[in-house]
Amino acid sequence: MVPLFCVILGLVGAQNFTQKVFYYNQTIDHFHIPVQEAGVFSQRYYVIDDYWNVASGPIFLYLCGESECKGVTSTTKSLFPLQVAKENAARYISLEHRYYGVSIPINNTGLFQQIFQYHDVDQALADIAQFIRYMNFQMQEIRKTTIPPKWVVIGGSYAGALSAWFRTRYPNLATAAWASSAVVRPILDFSDFDKQVYISTAKSGQNCVDSIKSVNNLIQSQYIAGNMTVITDLFNATSVFSNDPDQITVLWYIADTMAEMVQYGKRVELCQALNSASSPWDKLKQVSIVGNTYGLANPNAYAVSALKNLNIAQNVMDRQWWWQQCQQFGWLQTPSEYQMRPSYLNMTFWNWYCQQIYSYPGGITLPNTNITAAGLSYKANNIVYTNGSEDPWQWASNNAVSTEARPILKIECDFCGHCIDFKTPNSTDPASLTRARTYIKAYIAQWLRS
Ligand SMILES: *[C@@H]1O[C@H](CO)[C@@H](O)[C@H](O)[C@H]1NC(C)=O
Ligand SMILES: *[C@@H]1O[C@H](CO)[C@@H](O)[C@H](O)[C@H]1NC(C)=O
Ligand SMILES: *[C@@H]1O[C@H](CO)[C@@H](O)[C@H](O)[C@H]1NC(C)=O
Ligand SMILES: *[C@@H]1O[C@H](CO)[C@@H](O)[C@H](O)[C@H]1NC(C)=O
Ligand SMILES: *[C@@H]1O[C@H](CO)[C@@H](O)[C@H](O)[C@H]1NC(C)=O
Ligand SMILES: *[C@@H]1O[C@H](CO)[C@@H](O)[C@H](O)[C@H]1NC(C)=O
Ligand SMILES: *[C@@H]1O[C@H](CO)[C@@H](O)[C@H](O)[C@H]1NC(C)=O
Ligand SMILES: *[C@@H]1O[C@H](CO)[C@@H](O)[C@H](O)[C@H]1NC(C)=O
Question: What pLDDT band is residue 106 in, cutting at 50, 70 and 90?
Answer without folding.
Answer: confident
